[in-house]
Amino acid sequence: MDKDNNAKHHHNMHHDHGNEHMHHEEHNHNHHDHSGHGDHGGHGDHGGHGHGGHGAHMMADFKQRFWVVLVLSIPLAIIAPMSMHLLGYHIDFPGQGLLEFGLATIVFFYGGKPFLSHAWHELKSGVPGMMMLISLAIVAAYVYSVLTTFFISGMNYYFELASLILIMLAGHYIEMKAQMSAGNAVESLAKLLPSDAEVIHEDGSTSEVKVDQLKKGDRIFIRPGAKIPIDATVYEGHSEVDESMLTGESVPVLKEAGAQIVGGAINGDGILKATVTKTGTDTYLAQIINLVTDAQAQKSKAQSIADVWAKYLFYIALVAGIIAFVAWTGVDGYLMGLQFMVATFVIACPHALGLAVPLVNAESTSLAAESGLFIQNRIAFEDAHKIDKIVFDKTGTLTQGEFGVDEITVMDDKFNETSLLQIVYAIESQSEHPIARGIVKEAESRKLEKLQVADYHNLTGKGLEGTVNGKNIQILSPKATRQAGYTFDEAAFEASASKGRTIVFVIYDQVLVGAIAVSDIVREEAKAVVAELQNKGIQVLMLTGDNQQVADSVGETLHLDGVFAEVLSDEKADKIKSLQADGGRVAMVGDGVNDAPALAQADLGIAIGAGTDVARETGDIILVDSNIHDVLNILNLSKATKQKINQNLMWGAGYNVVAIPLAAGVLAGLGIVLGPALSAIIMSLSTVVCAVNARMLHRTYKKVQNK
């Protein structure tokens, strides 16, 4: 059979990664050629997620402080004037004041330390928040109580001081326990690089050195399956390199002399010799680390809603307290003024506000876990319902990140679809290449018998070869097929390739007998998710490093509002920035190291659970089940959570609106003064209302979901 004619049956092949393949061929990347799709090295172990360490230590610290303060608060409660007044008993013994002073001093300095130290940071930053409001109250209560113990007459606030610190410690502990600490993305990025590299000396010998000792121009030796230690240019050897960890691209890329390789990628089954081109902060990975660090630093400046409320309450309390002091000093001397000022400061610090947000957050974290979500950044989560643009990465996010067979084209009468797939299955089953895995999966789903293979080997940069039933079989990339002198319908190939498909050709006993088209499969749930998001008025966009035709194909399939293609990883964050500059809030959904800067830059970074450690630890929220349908759960739960937080803050602050003027003595002329006893009762009721309301979050969530 003539080589030039046996492709005449190759027509209407819809196909998905081949044009990428052609596009990259022109750039000498051979990006999607099925070239030498042999076994390549594993991804290696990236170590732990870094979850827990610092956060667990802080939680243990708060827990310990809580129990110590609780134990010390019991005797303070028993001998507190307020308790005796409310319950109608009387205790009086020598040294009672000194005992209260001693217990309260430990409570103030030990229990109050976290709040006082954070308040100092808030003071230095010039932005008061919850910590300054708490500290204003506990410092005022402690100082005034010490004065009443030793120098002036008046009722002390030792028990109020202890109960305030106790409730605030409880609130912070609840919130920490619900959240735990987020992972350290920068640590995980650093783990992508090996610590050692093999340097080639002048005499050709090699020795191991630390990666940070490498200099530009050093020659390095990269063994099969090894992690590439640093950015370099290949000068000898050829191998397929798995860059998926860095680029998100699922097909290994052929690297030959002159090709650039990136530190952190994984070498395939060939040996590479390369010259170091970048070191230190110039490397690809270092630049990603910088982008992530900068974006996270910007994001960490955001204030939680409770801090925003606390800021205003702080100013209100401060002004009200000073006015009360000045007014009452003029009326009845400075002691009366001092008493009303301290009462105002103490009552201004809302027990309920301290618990309002943590209780809702604890409940929402629990509901999030049930919905397949892990919340790492509370502030970003609280504002998730405001998102009006969602940007999805393509590979591994909107698509499965693994290949499936789209079409089998038979070009010889000796074969049908099944028999052609069976011989290809025999050869491909010897390889661990992503394309091979896709073909094997298809054959296994059809329950085909696996034929025996002899003389199997990888034609690096070209394809695979082996003997089945005594006949030589080659599975070649389009480029290698042309080079071998075979022809096929180029127009049909172009049409198929333009849809982003990768095509491999089957040579049986020196005859071109067929082709198999594979593509990265669009996730089943993607279309429904995109439609639902659009129904909510959210623009749905895609950001990918793939070429425009591939991106457009996926965009058309999913009816996306916009597609950004051929975007390099360091440009992804810039693209998010420009969308933010257009107005509105932007969410990014991704799974790769290359998505990390964009995840950090976005108002809400959503990481796919099955993605890389780096993406997971940069994301504000992780989709634990790797199901993008859970993006809808994020928006719904955020909306429900915000409603409950606002309701609780209204209750918490509502108490203050009434209590502060009364504590300042506005109605004292009518005989209405909010003393510590009555204020404690109102505080307790307010706190109970917040706790019960937080427990009702699941109902609000269901209502929002059903809308």
Automatic annotation (TrEMBL):
<feature type="compositionally biased region" description="Basic and acidic residues">
    <location>
        <begin position="15"/>
        <end position="48"/>
    </location>
</feature>
<keyword id="KW-1278">Translocase</keyword>
<dbReference type="InterPro" id="IPR023214">
    <property type="entry name" value="HAD_sf"/>
</dbReference>
<feature type="transmembrane region" description="Helical">
    <location>
        <begin position="678"/>
        <end position="697"/>
    </location>
</feature>
<dbReference type="InterPro" id="IPR059000">
    <property type="entry name" value="ATPase_P-type_domA"/>
</dbReference>
<keyword id="KW-0547">Nucleotide-binding</keyword>
<dbReference type="GO" id="GO:0055070">
    <property type="term" value="P:copper ion homeostasis"/>
</dbReference>
<dbReference type="GO" id="GO:0005524">
    <property type="term" value="F:ATP binding"/>
</dbReference>
<comment type="similarity">
    <text>Belongs to the cation transport ATPase (P-type) (TC 3.A.3) family. Type IB subfamily.</text>
</comment>
<feature type="region of interest" description="Disordered">
    <location>
        <begin position="1"/>
        <end position="54"/>
    </location>
</feature>
<feature type="domain" description="P-type ATPase A">
    <location>
        <begin position="192"/>
        <end position="292"/>
    </location>
</feature>
<keyword id="KW-0472">Membrane</keyword>
<dbReference type="GO" id="GO:0005886">
    <property type="term" value="C:plasma membrane"/>
</dbReference>
<feature type="transmembrane region" description="Helical">
    <location>
        <begin position="337"/>
        <end position="360"/>
    </location>
</feature>
<feature type="transmembrane region" description="Helical">
    <location>
        <begin position="93"/>
        <end position="111"/>
    </location>
</feature>
<dbReference type="InterPro" id="IPR023299">
    <property type="entry name" value="ATPase_P-typ_cyto_dom_N"/>
</dbReference>
<keyword id="KW-0813">Transport</keyword>
<keyword id="KW-1003">Cell membrane</keyword>
<feature type="transmembrane region" description="Helical">
    <location>
        <begin position="66"/>
        <end position="87"/>
    </location>
</feature>
<dbReference type="GO" id="GO:0005507">
    <property type="term" value="F:copper ion binding"/>
</dbReference>
<dbReference type="Pfam" id="PF00122">
    <property type="entry name" value="E1-E2_ATPase"/>
</dbReference>
<dbReference type="InterPro" id="IPR027256">
    <property type="entry name" value="P-typ_ATPase_IB"/>
</dbReference>
<protein>
    <recommendedName>
        <fullName>P-type Cu(+) transporter</fullName>
        <ecNumber>7.2.2.8</ecNumber>
    </recommendedName>
</protein>
<keyword id="KW-0479">Metal-binding</keyword>
<dbReference type="InterPro" id="IPR018303">
    <property type="entry name" value="ATPase_P-typ_P_site"/>
</dbReference>
<feature type="transmembrane region" description="Helical">
    <location>
        <begin position="132"/>
        <end position="151"/>
    </location>
</feature>
<keyword id="KW-0186">Copper</keyword>
<keyword id="KW-0406">Ion transport</keyword>
<feature type="transmembrane region" description="Helical">
    <location>
        <begin position="312"/>
        <end position="331"/>
    </location>
</feature>
<dbReference type="InterPro" id="IPR044492">
    <property type="entry name" value="P_typ_ATPase_HD_dom"/>
</dbReference>
<dbReference type="Pfam" id="PF00702">
    <property type="entry name" value="Hydrolase"/>
</dbReference>
<keyword id="KW-0812">Transmembrane</keyword>
<keyword id="KW-1133">Transmembrane helix</keyword>
<feature type="transmembrane region" description="Helical">
    <location>
        <begin position="157"/>
        <end position="174"/>
    </location>
</feature>
<dbReference type="InterPro" id="IPR036412">
    <property type="entry name" value="HAD-like_sf"/>
</dbReference>
<dbReference type="GO" id="GO:0043682">
    <property type="term" value="F:P-type divalent copper transporter activity"/>
</dbReference>
<dbReference type="GO" id="GO:0140581">
    <property type="term" value="F:P-type monovalent copper transporter activity"/>
</dbReference>
<dbReference type="InterPro" id="IPR001757">
    <property type="entry name" value="P_typ_ATPase"/>
</dbReference>
<dbReference type="InterPro" id="IPR008250">
    <property type="entry name" value="ATPase_P-typ_transduc_dom_A_sf"/>
</dbReference>
<keyword id="KW-0067">ATP-binding</keyword>
<dbReference type="InterPro" id="IPR023298">
    <property type="entry name" value="ATPase_P-typ_TM_dom_sf"/>
</dbReference>
<keyword id="KW-0187">Copper transport</keyword>
